[in-house]
């Protein structure tokens, strides 16, 4: 193909929406901007990304490009070689691998987290119970004061249940 494939440059499908194109451009621009990236061809890549984005974001330019692309795909292969293009990365450049997580350490941390949440829940429930008793015997003390404590207790119970479920999944992984 003598025409650059702007869709593969931006790593989107030919039927991608304007939002998908804009999102892909932003992602690539953040990753390969010459001021931010240490990639050796970052400047040339950004020129390619800008060129592709400027064509694909404009509906008229995109329609014309799609028409030329379609004609070129169905035309016989030209004898001359296409112009050299800087390589478009297929996968983002990644940094050093993350350290392996020690499963036993994660389990221990999760146990401690569940225990501390259960202790906090117990304290809140005790305070709620004491305030409830006070509201029964003291005139003018509104039980509505207990509502935030009850809601917070329910949230804590839900977080404990989720932590216990995750802990049991970790145990099954062993």
What topology emerges from the helices and strands here?
Elements: H1 6-9, H2 18-32, H3 42-56, H4 59-74, H5 103-137, H6 146-173
Helix pairs in contact: 2-3, 5-6
Helix content: 55-70%
In terms of per-residue confidence, which ranges show pLDDT below 50 for 5 or more consecutive residues?
none
Rg measurement, Å: 30 Å
The average pLDDT is 78
Assembly state of the chains shown = single chain
Decide which structural class fits the backbone.
mainly alpha
Structurally, the number of domains stands at 2
> What is the N-to-C succession of helices and strands?
HHHHHH
- Shape annotation: elongated
Per DSSP, what share of the residues sits in E-state strands of 2 or more residues? Answer: under 5%
Count the E strands: 0
Distance from N terminus to C terminus (CA atoms, Å) equals 52 Å
Largest sheet: none
Tally of contiguous helical segments: 6
Textual characterization of the structure:
The protein is mainly α and 174 residues long. The chain has helices at 6-9, 18-32, 42-56, 59-74, 103-137, 146-173. It folds into 2 domains: 6-74, DnaJ domain (Helix Hairpins), CATH 1.10.287; 103-173. It contains 6 helices and no strands. The two termini are 52 Å apart.
